[in-house]
Amino acid sequence: MRRLLLASSSPYRRELLSRLQLEFDCRAPEIDETAQAGERPEQLVRRLAREKAQALAPTHQQHLIIGSDQVAVLGERILGKPYTFERARQQLQACSGKSVSFLTGLALLDSRTGTAQVDCITFAVHFRAINDQQIERYLQAEQPFDCAGSFKAEGLGISLFRATEGSDATSLIGLPLIRLVDMLNHAGIEVP
């Protein structure tokens, strides 16, 4: 079986990929993740997912390389990872009572041939109206400062939602497994 390589240092993506019970390695790609002028969010995540996989291809020439990237979009604004308590508070205040779209780019690159399957999976989160005290309690409890949108859907962050909408809940965590299984099957890796 072809070796799989996850082009990520994310513990969330690593945990998700391990659910498929396939052997894989992880390496962090070194790329510039800056959006290009005029680039729409969907274009951005598709490009970054592909570039993450391509960055590792020269040193992993016999692999199927998985790249993924995600942005959260509120209206026309991209919400990045907050990194600080105050920025996380501001993001959650802005999301209160609104809907946020999570766009997850996914690429599966065959480093032997250079061919790639690339897609973008959308998942919507509809937030409850949350007050400052709820936001503060949540941030202190879970500290989601490395998560786009300032929450962990796989944890207590689910309490901030009134509904979710999409075909693959794992895309919300950063690696859309349903679509990835399709790509792996197409590449000759049978799952299960």
Give a brief rundown of this model.
With 192 residues, the protein is of the alpha/beta class.
Describe the protein's architecture and organization.
By secondary structure, the chain is an alpha/beta fold. It starts with a strand and ends in a 6-residue tail after the last helix. The chain is elongated, with a radius of gyration of 17 Å. Strands 1, 2, 3, 4, 5, 6 and 7 form a 7-stranded mixed beta sheet that branches. The protein contains 6 helices and 7 strands; from the N terminus they run E-H-E-H-E-E-H-E-E-H-E-H-H. A hairpin with a 4-residue loop joins strand 5 and strand 6.
| Total number of beta strands | 7
Main sheet: strands, sense, barrel: 7 strands, mixed
Rounded mean pLDDT score: 95
Portion of residues within helices: 25-40%
- Secondary-structure element sequence? EHEHEEHEEHEHH
- CA-based shape: elongated
**N- to C-terminal separation?**
13 Å
Q: Unreliable stretches, pLDDT < 50, 5 or more residues?
A: none
Label this structure with key terms.
single chain, 192 residues, alpha/beta, seven-stranded mixed sheet, 6 helices, 7 strands, 29% strand, elongated
Topology:
Layout: E1 3-7, H1 11-18, E2 24-27, H2 41-56, E3 63-74, E4 77-79, H3 85-95, E5 99-110, E6 115-127, H4 132-142, E7 161-166, H5 170-173, H6 177-186
Parallel strand pairs: 1-2, 1-3
Antiparallel strand pairs: 3-4, 3-5, 5-6, 6-7
